[in-house]
Amino acid sequence: MTLMDLLARGTCVPAVTARGAIVEKGLKRCKAIGDYLNNHRFMPHHKTLWERACSRMRSVRQHLRRLTLPFREQARSHI
């Protein structure tokens, strides 16, 4: 099956893998990938949404904040 056959059938453009082989991607898969990229590419609050979804990241952030807090207070008192 050639590239022109795939385009004539209405499927999306095939992707070239690292080895150079042409892999046929179905229309549904391409649409799903396109929808994901369109919805997640320019989310200004992406990090905050991820923190709400993942408690581990939230605890890491809080831990880092606790580690840097004493240094900030110490620096202010020595001015």
Overall description:
The protein has helices at residues 3-9, 27-40, 46-53, 55-77; strands at residues 15-16, 22-23. It is mainly alpha-helical and 79 residues long. It folds into 2 domains: 3-40, no CATH class; 46-77, no CATH class. Strands 1-2 form a two-stranded antiparallel ribbon. The protein is rod-shaped and about 75 Å long. Residues 17-25 have low confidence and may be disordered.
Name its key features:
79 residues; mainly alpha; 2 domains; two-stranded antiparallel ribbon; 4 helices; 2 strands; rod-shaped
- The stretches of 5 or more residues where confidence is low (pLDDT under 50) are 17-25
What shape does the CA trace take? rod-shaped
* Largest sheet, spatial ordering of strands: 1-2
| Helix count from the secondary structure assignment | 4
Record the SSE blueprint.
Blueprint: H1 3-9, E1 15-16, E2 22-23, H2 27-40, H3 46-53, H4 55-77
Antiparallel strand pairs: 1-2
What's the quick description here?
The longest helix is centred in the last third of the chain and has 23 residues, at 55-77. The chain has helices at 3-9, 27-40, 46-53, 55-77, and strands spanning 15-16, 22-23.
